[in-house]
Design brief:
Blueprint (H helix, E strand, L loop, with lengths): L5 E4 L3 E5 L5 E6 L2 E4 L4 E4 L3 H18 L6 E4 L4 E5 L1 E3 L2 E8 L3 H6 L6 E11 L8 E2 L1 H6 L5 H23 L3 E13 L2 E8 L7 E5 L9 H4 L5 H11 L5
Antiparallel strand pairs: 1-2, 2-3, 3-7, 4-5, 6-7, 8-12, 9-10, 9-12, 10-11, 12-13, 12-14
Helix pairs in contact: 1-6
């Protein structure tokens, strides 16, 4: 069969045409990148693990009445998704201080925050994804005030669901980044898009604080696949 034309290629995924005009197929690659691809390596089966973990989480959120672009997992690497116009912002939710917020503000790594912190980053690799404010989003037309309010509410609900879900598995949800889009079939409908996986979350073992996410690769802390397989195992996806 001929290879389908790639419509979009990101650091860890590709998008190709779906079976109809309002769908796409999202393909998970084995690439691991950090620091806007300044660090890059291929890990066999990473895409398979992320596909299955993201499917698990999307189904969980769907059961909690959170609208997503996810339709179904097609195979080990591919998902059928609803086509969206992606809002060019990474929405970050932090429960524990780690990563860029610590270096940016001199905050102690591992500090538990009094409440979830919402942050917004412009998706632009050439600018190293700068942090922006809600006013920036509205002023430059990236999202309307109503859309931002909706996304904030959805982000906090997603956070609440995932904190509890991971906690039961002995995992602390430190932070995560998510993306949202407007459905092609209904531009007024905002849905969770992209993926939620160890690529986009910081996940620590509750007791040992061992890192079970992309920081293993980012900071050279061990075998990335072992960490991702541990998350998948605790979620009951692989054994």
């Amino acid at each position: 069969m001929p290879t389908k034309k790639v419509l979009y290629e990101g650091k860890a995924k590709q998008l190709v045409k779906g079976p109809n005009k309002d769908t796409l197929i999202q393909i998970f690659k084995d690439d691991a990148t950090a620091y806007n691809k300044k660090k890059h390596k291929i890990f066999k089966s990473k895409g398979v693990l992320n596909n299955k973990i993201s499917e698990h989480i999307m189904l969980l959120l769907t059961s909690k009445k959170i609208p997503t672009h996810f339709v179904k997992r097609i195979n080990d690497r591919e998902q059928l998704i609803k086509k969206c116009e992606i809002i060019p912002i990474e929405f970050v939710v932090r429960n524990v201080a780690s990563g860029s917020i610590c270096s940016r503000l001199g905050i102690k790594d591992g500090l538990k925050l009094k409440r979830p912190l919402l942050e917004y980053y412009l998706k632009e690799d050439s600018l190293d994804d700068p942090i922006v404010s809600r006013d920036h989003l509205e002023l430059f037309g990236w999202a309307t005030k109503k859309e931002i309010e909706k996304i904030d509410q959805m982000s906090l609900k997603i956070n609440h669901c995932l904190i509890n879900h991971f906690k039961k598995k002995g995992i602390t949800l430190v932070d995560f980044k998510i993306e949202f889009g407007r459905l092609s079939s209904n531009k007024k409908k905002i849905v969770l898009a992209d993926e939620i996986s160890p690529d986009s979350c910081r996940l620590w073992d509750n007791k040992s604080k061992t890192k079970l996410d992309k920081d293993v690769f980012r900071k050279g802390l061990g075998n990335l696949i072992d960490a991702y397989e541990e998350v998948a195992s605790r979620l009951g996806i692989v054994h």
